[in-house]
Each structure stands twice: as C-alpha cells, then as structure tokens.
Amino acid sequence: MKVVASAPGKITLYGEHAVVYGEPALVASIDKRVYVTCIPRSDGRFRISALNLHVPGVIVTYSRDGEIILETDYGRVLSALSYINEGLRITSEYIGERRGADIIVESSMPVGAGLGTSAAVTVATIAAYAKALGYDLKREEIAKLAWETEKKVQGIASPMDTSISTFGGVMYIRYSGSNVHMERVKIGSEIPLVIGYVEREAKTKDLVQRVYSLKQKYPHIVEAIIKTIGSIVEEARKALYEGDLVRAGELMNINHGLLDALGVSTKKLNELVYAARAMGALGSKLSGAGGGGSMIALVLRERVQDVSSAIRILGGKVIDTAIGGKGLVYESVERS
Ligand code: MEV
Fold first, then answer.
1. Where are the domains of the chain?
2. Average of per-residue pLDDT values in the chain
3. I need a labelling partner for 141 at 20 to 30 A (CA). Which of 67, 134, 151, 152 fits?
4. What is the pLDDT of residue 184?
5. Domain spanning 193-319 has what CATH number?
C-alpha cells in the first residue's frame, strides 16, 4: 500500500521544560504540517528522501543486516533523520514485522524553528509505515510509539510534542509515568498570536539536558521555578477560559522570565520577545525548547503589523499560521 500521512507542528503557549518534570502545559497545533509518503519495498531496503526540509539535497539510507545507514553530508538534517530511523525501528518492533520502504518527507514548515518538526516527522512516519504494512494502529498507540522514539533520540522527553501532533487542537497536558492526561482547553475568546522564529543554536536534547543539569546543581531553586511554571499554566488556563487576554499576556511574560532563568533563552530570542511587548503585545515568550527557535506574542489585531515588523527588523521571521488545527491525517491510502 502507498500511504501519505501528515502531522502538524505546534507552539507551546505555557509550560515547556517544566512539563518534562510532571507539571502541566498548554500547547496548540499549528496549520503547518509534515507529509510523509511510505511505499513498501520488496528488497528490505529503506530509501529516505527529505526533499524540502529546507536544506537542499536528497538523503538516501540503506538497510544492511537490519541496520539503517544514513548517507548524508547534512548534519542538521541528520537529526531529523534520527527520528525517522528510530521511529521505523520502534514501529517494526511493535507490529512484529520489518519491511523495507521508500519514505518521502515533505514539510510546509521550516526545520530548526522550534515548531515541533521532529515530533511531526515522527508521528507521520510511524502512522504511514504501519498503515502501509497493513496495520491499523490507534491514535493512542501512534502517540505512544512517537513518544518512545523521542525519548530514545533525546534521552529525556515529555509526551507533549508527540501528543499534540497526533491529536491536534489546543490542549492542557500533563503526564505521570506512562500515563498521559490530555484535555481540550476551553477558551472564552480567540487567542490572537504572532509567531516569530530565529534559527536554532542548540538542539532540544541539549536544552533539556541543560535544565536537568541546573536542577541537579541547584535542586531547591530549580524545582521551585518548575513548580511556579506549573502554577502559571493553571492560572493561564483560567484566564483563557474567561477570555482575559490581559492576564494571559502577563502570565506569558512571567513564564518567559522563568524560562530565561532556566538558561534556555538566547539574546536574540529575548530581543524579539521584548520588542513585541514594546510594540503593544499583551505578552510574549519563547515557545518550545528555546536556544533560538520560536517565540509567540499575544497581540490584538490593531497591533499585529507593528509587532510583526519589529520581529522582522530584528532578523526574525514571522509565520502566518492558525492554531488548533487537525492532528494526524491519512491524506491518501492506495494499493500500490
Ligand atoms: C520541546 O518542544 C518541549 C520541551 O518541554 C521538551 C519536552 O517536553 O520533551 C522543552
């Protein structure tokens, strides 16, 4: 079977990093997606093409003795490929069947922008591969396999990115052990956002590790910060429910300050975050793992132009996207 599956990227409204330690987070899918086509092969080989992950070139990998070998000169893309590689391995193990396949990855969002591309690639790859081999996995199973893949590649990962990419929407999420709790966030008014990004300087894996090391060094201080971020999430959930955007904005500002305290912001991200506020945003923060990547600003319509221009003048890019879109979608399933 030839299967095309797609999965969305995401922004974190509140709670990244603290979510890794069991605190809740508010997260939203965006309407930019990764598309993965899977066509099984009869020769046991894998050929992976990542044509427009915004780095030129085709990446080809071959399976020899059950091992996938990545052949590419592009270090940055290699990191996206390690999610594909691991996702295929974990899925094969789960379904108890391993067949070669042509995998074609296309993205409508920029890679390295901190918008959850790796989770979207992972979810879409697992779904397309399992379906192409004739296995109808439930969404819960796909989300779980994708989370396992992220944990394997990153060392430490919460289920936040993989869950939102699988289910979509605007979600409140927290986990404990292997139990993941997700609820749709009820909102009293739209959440008007401007989303900007700069190139990533560090990988998610290293940033999560940085927070972990800081926590080891200053447990009382860092644990208190993490707990406070959890309280911000609960308060923000109420503010969004009541449609109180002023309060929601202030809470974003506090959340950003604490992420900066955890050492995951950068000078460039801080510039964008503060410029957005100076141009009239109700609040702004980095979004995702940090180290560059994306930032969000809560902005009323009349201020959107000013905030967007400020981000661009400072060297950032603005993404035009809506939040809360669909999760995993099977775009097409054909007999090949
Ligand atoms: C990355 O998008 C979000 C982090 O909280 C890591 C995770 O939840 O696994 C930084």
1. 2-185+324-334, 193-319
2. 91
3. 67
4. 96
5. 3.30.70.890
Amino acid 77: pLDDT: 52
**CA–centroid distance, residue 171 to ligand 1 (Å):** 15
- Domain 2-185+324-334: assigned CATH number: 3.30.230.10
Whether the domain at 2-185+324-334 and the domain at 193-319 fall into the same CATH topology = no
Give the model confidence (pLDDT) of 80-115 as tens digits: 678 888 999 999 999 999 898 988 888 888 877 889
Mean pLDDT of 279-301: 97
Which CA distances in Å does 143 have to 87, 119, 126?
Answer: 11, 10, 9
| CA distances to 151, 204, 261 from 128, in Å | 20, 25, 40
Residue for token digits 């789960």?
94
CB of 289 within 6 A of ligand 1: the answer is yes
Gap between the Cα atoms of 165 and 174, Å rounded: 15
- Cβ(232) to ligand 1 under 6 A? no
Which pLDDT score, from 0 to 100, does residue 277 have? 98
Residue 311 CA to residue 268 CA, distance in Å, equals 10
Which residues are known catalytic residues? 161
- Please identify, by atom number, the ligand 1 atom nearest to the C-alpha of residue 16: 5
How many Å lie between the centroid of ligand 1 and the Cα of residue 160? Answer: 7
Helix (H, G, I), strand (E, B) or coil at 89: helix
**H-assigned helices in the chain:** 75-95, 117-132, 139-154, 160-167, 204-217, 219-241, 245-261, 267-278, 304-313
CA-CA distance, 327 to 250, in Å (whole number)?
29
Residue 17 has pLDDT above 70, yes or no: yes
Q: Could you tell me the two tokens for 329? A: 């979608």
Distance CA 137, CA 148 (A): 15
Q: What percent of the chain has pLDDT over 90?
A: 76
Q: Please give the model's pTM, rounded to 2 decimal places.
A: 0.93
Contact 24, 159 (CB under 8 A): no
Measured from the Cα of 289, ligand 1's closest atom is 10
